[in-house]
Amino acid sequence: TAESILSFFGSTTPNSSDLQTWQVRGSNDAVEKSLLFTKYSPSNSCRSSIADTDTPNTTSLNSRNLKIAAFDLDSTLITTRSGKKFSSDAQDWKWWHSSIPNTLRKLILEDGFKIAIISNQAGLSLKNKSDPKAKLPEFKSKVSSLLNKLDLPVSVYVATENDTYRKPRSGMWEELVRDTLVDKSEELNLEETFFVGDAAGRAASPGRPKDFSCSDRNFAENVGIKFFTPEEFFLGEKPRPFSRLLEPAKYFQGLTTQCSQPFLKKIKMISFFCVVAPDQENQAGTGET
Q1: What is the pLDDT of residues 97-123, one digit of tens each?
Q2: DSSP string covering the chain
Q3: CB within 10 Å: which end of the chain, N or C, has fewer?
Q4: What is the CATH number of domain 2-263?
Q5: Residue-wise pLDDT tens digits, 120-149
């Protein structure tokens, strides 16, 4: 009901950061651990809501019905309350658009999606946690506050180094899929799975600056899922023109037209030459060769 939805989003819980357990992961033992991970467990009231709305959409025996809605964090789900480019403290955030909480709730409760946040955070440092510039406690507190306000089951993956986890590389996605497909018989529905992010390679337009990169769009391309910008997904806007530094398909198309026929040289004859030293006892005579 409308009353229950208002109650759901109006509720707050003190010390929300205490509700979160964070992990630091690495792709293997030989690689330095640089991936931050946490998973929010909703309150009892939210668990009941999810259980009550369980339908064949979310519990189907069709293994391909497992689908993920993944989102970037900054300038996609949230922005700064202060208006600054980067948040000044753990409280300096607000929803990118007021519709976001209800949209995420609908994705889970009505459409049967699993929700994940996938974010690059190069400004964080896991090497020296006591460094006041690391901002790790501040970031964890901000994310915990966000998750507490949502009170929905959400997994969070954060790349802190320029390694296999950093978008547009696929490391965080591989971790997410591994965590999601616990049952080996399950299969991900890539046709409905999607990623939303603001780094989309868009050119500047009136009132809107040029995107700083195309890493989010390239990430979705690399893992084989649909991509939307926040404006497209949350506001229903039409796609804006974009460009990439490299379009592999166009690049290889050009190469194939230049070398349409492989180079093959027909071999007509093979000659073998064999030289045998003359017998030492008959050096003056003729030897057989």
Answers
A1: 999 999 999 999 999 999 999 999 998
A2: -HHHHHHHHH---SSGGGG---EEE-SSTTS---EEEEEEPPPHHHHHHHHHT--HHHH-S-GGGB-EEEE-SBTTTEE-SS--SS-SSTT--EESSTTHHHHHHHHHHTT--EEEEEEE-TT--SS-TT-TTS-HHHHHHHHHHHHHHHTS-EEEEEE-SSSTTSTTSSHHHHHHHHHH--STT--B-TTT-EEE-S-S-BPPBTTBPPPS-SHHHHHHHHHT-EEE-HHHHHH-PPPPPB--S--HHHHHHHHHHHT-S---------------PPPGGGTTS----
A3: N
A4: 3.40.50.1000
A5: 999 898 877 666 666 899 999 999 999 999
